[in-house]
Write a structure and sequence with these properties.
The complex is a heterodimer of chains A (112) and B (114). With 112 residues, chain A is an all-beta fold. Chain A has no helices and eleven strands. Chain B is mostly beta strands. The chains are: A mainly beta (112), B mainly beta (114). Chains A and B meet through strand 4, strand 5 and strand 10 of A and strand 5 of B.
Chain lengths: 112, 114
């Protein structure tokens, strides 16, 4: 199974600060169809996960553009340019290139 | 608007069975497969598998083969998850999610306790 390693496990930020989360994969997530199925999700406390970014860098509809994704093959990054209070929660990367689909362990974003 | 509405919380004893439903609305149900995802209390997300909502064919992750069954009531735009011979470690919130993980249900909490 593909292992996704997220760092850091916890992130403390002030409002307005820019932060990044890393997601490293145990194998390339480049699919034979040319796409890379690496997504980022946010789970706010007590809520279901919400898709933020799909296929590495595509912003899901309705998601603020302070969120951005980058990377390729095995190394991926989610950046939040100017944290807002509503961004607090746990961020997960997940891959849908190789079955079984797998999730990172999560990065908890807290207010400093 | 697109919605996935799941059935309510369940309290079961070990050895019993449970059936969770996920009713879709706002789109053509058979156009998008459905995933099931498990989240144990205080833990991360684990993909259980998916069901093709057009053919009804399920695909299970290895850890969910045997006691877990994905099924459909396509006429009601509903996907179901049935867990038999419940164990304490099945205590979790179970989410349904549309194929692209773009829409999620609110989750159904299943508690297994004697």
């Amino acid at each position: 199974d593909v292992v996704l390693t997220q760092t850091p496990p916890t992130l403390s930020a002030t409002i307005g600060q820019s932060v990044s989360i890393s997601c490293r994969s145990s194998q390339s997530l480049l699919d034979s169809d040319g796409d890379t199925y690496l997504n980022w999700l946010l789970q706010r406390p007590g809520q279901s996960p919400q898709l933020l970014i799909y296929s590495v860098s595509n912003l899901e509809s309705g998601v603020p553009n302070r969120f951005s994704g980058s990377g390729s093959e095995t190394d991926f990054t989610l950046k939040i340019s100017g944290v807002e209070a509503e961004d607090l929660g746990v961020y997960y990367c997940m891959q849908a290139t190789h079955a079984p689909y797998t999730f990172g362990a999560g990065t908890k974003l807290e207010l400093k | 608007q697109i919605q996935l509405v799941q059935s309510g919380p369940e309290l079961k004893k070990p050895g019993e069975s449970v059936k969770i439903s996920c009713k879709a609305s706002g789109y053509t149900f058979t156009d998008y497969a459905m995933h099931w995802v498990k989240q144990a209390p205080g833990k991360g997300l684990k993909w259980m598998g998916w069901i093709n909502t057009y053919t009804g064919k399920p695909t299970y992750a290895d850890d969910f083969k045997g006691r877990f069954v994905f099924s459909l009531e396509a006429s009601a735009s509903t996907a179901n998850l049935q867990i038999s011979n419940l164990k304490n470690e099945d205590t979790a919130t179970y989410f349904c999610s549309r194929w692209y993980f773009d829409f999620w249900g609110p989750g159904t909490m299943v508690t297994v306790s004697s």
